[in-house]
Amino acid sequence: MVATTDIPIVVDDSPPSDKLPPGEWLKKNLFSSPANSLVTIVLVAFAAFVLFLLGRYIIDSEWEIVRVNLANFMVGRFPRDELWRQWASLYFVGTAIAFTSAAVGRSAYELALEQDLPAERESLAGLLRRFWPVVAVSIFFVSFARTALPFIGLAIVPIVFIVAREIGWRAPVLVRRNAAFIGGLLLLTSLFFLAGASNLMGLAAGAIVYLMVSAELGRTFFDPGMVGMAKRQLPALVAAVIVWAIIRSIPFEGFGWEDWGGIHVTFFVTIIGIVLGMPIGILLAVARRSKLSVLQSAAVLFIEFVRGVPLISLLLFSQILLPFFLPQGFERPADLTLAIIVIMGFSAAYIAEIVRGGLQAVPKGQTEAGQAGGMSAAQIQRMIVLPQALRASIPAMVGQFIALFKDTTLLVIIGIGPELLGVAQVSNAQNDFVGRGLAPLTYLFVAAGYWAFAYTLSKESRRLEAKLGVGTR
User: Is the whole-model pTM more than 0.85?
Assistant: First the structure.
């Protein structure tokens, strides 16, 4: 008779890792065969040669044109004795991003632990690896400063970010639950330091408060369907009007965006175009698939007209012809306001087609399952169809955002700003630098800024796709 003992068997059910040690990765991907090794050596040698020439050109070049115009590249015509507003605005933007991302991340971390899923907090080193292009280019830009203030101001940014991140991570549940609302208030404060108690600030504050109150009331008290949406409009509108009145009563003057410029106006126009263009684009995509002929025809007409016309022609239209369509006696808006309206519509048209492709990719059975569960058409769109459509649209959507970021260079053609590229052209035309062949330096400086942020956005897009499993089943 054979005696048996119970020996515990440990089964590792974790998914296999596709990460290889550096030596094995190089051998597998770059030197797996003689032909592959030859191609790798040739390309590495060519890249090293190009980097050597570029590095020597950067070191030997005369960068005085950038040093003299550094403030213009950053903020354009913004009054130099009021630059503290720019720094205060930057700190509040960093606080909003750090606090909101940390609070949302902590909630997701706790939810993963509750469901026995792997979860860990991302370290500061991990964040640095993700956003190193932006950090590197920011240091590169500030290195041209001729005073200590920009160095001190930039050094404070990571301190503010780290402190706000810790506060967001350690915040109580009630605070984390309203992290988006708090982040919106911080962004409003950032805008307040720039624009003061102006109509711009009041309208922005009212719009954000309206959206936040409407969403919070709907989540807390009302049914998520169309009836609940109608019920929460009145209190949200009242809150928005009250906030607008309070903002307008504060005696704090600021500077409207007609005084902004440089990379500041580039980011502002891009963010406004994305934030306002995306919801309009989603509505246009839904309207284009609507069974109501009027809605469908109007959406098709708008989308196809905008997509069939170059953006520069629309920008020229905004400056020359659009003011003629304003009511009699209506004050002409600022040139940048008109340009933002056009960029918002242009972005919305392209986003609509991207989202429509995502909507068509959602199987019809998903809609039928929602109908079988007794859900309304609005609930099916909001809770079943749109989340899947937007998930599938991430690659094309981010590509459109990057294109919009680069398309802001067209503002220089209609004389707005000057934005980042426009500052380069103005700098090259200055009496002290004209005819000295320094244009490649200014354009290289501008290209570094565009590359850093476009590349970072592309990297974050791929990271989000991997987390959501885009392209996999």
Answer: no
